[in-house]
Amino acid sequence: MSEANKAPARQGPPMGMRGPGGPGGPGRGPRNLFVEKPKNGKETIKRLVQYIGSSKYLVLGMLVVMLAVTVLQLLAPSLQGEAINSMTPVDGNSSVDMAAVLRTLAMLAVVYLLTAVMQYFQGIFSVSLSQATVRRMRTDLFNRIVKLPIRFIDTHQHGDIMSRMTNDVENISQVVSSSIGSLFSGALTVVGSIVIMLYYSPALTGISLVTVILSLLATAKMSKYMRKYFSRQSSLLGQLNGHAEEMITGYHTVVAFSREDNAEREFNAISADLKKTGIIAQLLGGIMGPVMNVIGNIGFLLIAAFGGYFALQGAISIGVIQAFILYSKQFTRPINELANLYGQIQTAIAGAERVFAILDSPPEVDEGRKSLPSVRGDIDFNHIFFSYVPDKPVLKDFDLHVKSGQRIAIVGATGSGKTTVVNLLTRFYDVDKGNILLDGVNIQDIPKDELRGNIAIVLQDTVLFSDTIAGNIRYGKLDADDNAVKRAAQTANADIFIERLPDGYNSVLSESGGNLSQGQRQLLSIARAVLADPSILILDEATSSVDTRTELHIQEAMLALMKNRTSLIIAHRLSTIRTADKIIVVDDGKIVESGNHAELLKQEGVYYRLYQNQFAGLQT
Questions:
Q1: By CB atoms within 10 Å of each CB, which of 270, 456, 475, 482 scores lowest?
Q2: CA 517 to chain centre
Q3: 501 touches 550 (CB < 8 A)
Q4: Burial zone of 11 (CB within 10 Å; 0-12 exposed, 13-18 middle, 19+ buried)
Q5: 332-351 pLDDT tens trace
């Protein structure tokens, strides 16, 4: 795996980049591993609180229920103290006020019953708040992803992006569900307990606060080490998912080159690193609970010892000592709960940092304001300079003029810059220098949706979705009716195999159309482009992955599709572009030859050598 921002070994999109159309586009290669550095934890928590606070009615409902639960829990120890005082010996004689005891026990029963009911509603509010928060966060995350520049998607591991959408957001969901209630009730319980403890005995309250100071010191000391490992754990999980997604997607290639062992070694290396980091993170997270318990037990010991001394002095009663111990336990319980949840909270914060890193990534900028009422298809590339990586130029003073309705073929060696021309025309990337005109208008002045709406692309690796065949064709024009879909399939020569399927146009495709052949997938892609009815057509290596016989069927479909349209054809197979109006030969980012097939053969230059190399092998 290459490091982030590592310069590519060939010209074209940097390592990990996909070409137009996302997954399956040209520019294939291993994707980069991006490991985010830990962000500002306070800022992350602040933003999480803003997401939580956006569900203000749920938060308000939870606060009301929490207040009720806290008041009831704070009332219970006081009632227990009264019950004990009702049975306290007086002057060496046993004295029990049964009426007071029964009355207190009845009140305790009502308090415990109401507490259980309120805690049930507390759980409902917690889960509702959690799901509302993560739904809003997932929606914002997905909405940002679909608006990110192609460069971002090309330079980030797809599995890592998915990990942020799934694992990281799910960690946030769990913590919001389990911790928000603890935070709210804990804060209310601590305040209420201190007030009541001060009422009973200020001195004993001061002694109890010693354990709080010890707890805060221990938490601050340990959290400094923990956060680093939980952030690293989230990043490694994203890498592991990314590697697994990459290997599964490219499994045929892995097997074809017998790289199973290599893939396994890479996976095991990341997995081992994740295991090591995870163990350290969980150990540090798990230590917090026992440490807090030890500090809490020290607090109980101090209260019992000093409380007994104060009772002997007549300052407080035995019932007060009992109540004080319970209040002290309630006082330290929220701290212990948060200590036990600290590992989960750190994981959620680390995940939130990764989610916010995408949310903070600038979306694709579209400053185009000049609308074109109708597109003829005249295209001008004027002195274009472009590089994916600084100081690594891909196109150098590239100059090309295409007339409306012309079929222009672009050929050249791998990495010569052919696909980059498509990337720039569709504004997947913007030029470094020069300009591209469409019907005399700079494409940077045209809204991107309008520009791309007039362009259809047929890629080498067809992108199909887990939908019906009709649904995949209709992706070119969502409001098309069934008759239009069928006409498009007929024009693309796809109707023959579609009608042979048991469910015809309603046949559901598996992931990426895996239940169809490569040629059939390509015909569906052409049918989709036919339905889109574009002014400009781009065919990017559209037949390089099929056999010669299938290529003939696809060529027939492409000829019908190119009729009366400006067409740019990028091809390695020179047999597919012999009928082009003009053939452009690109080498090292420049146009070195141009003309039709016969003219270029007569020149006996670069095109002639490419042609001879391909067809000499066929004739031997």
A1: 482
A2: 31
A3: no
A4: buried
A5: 677 667 666 766 777 788 88
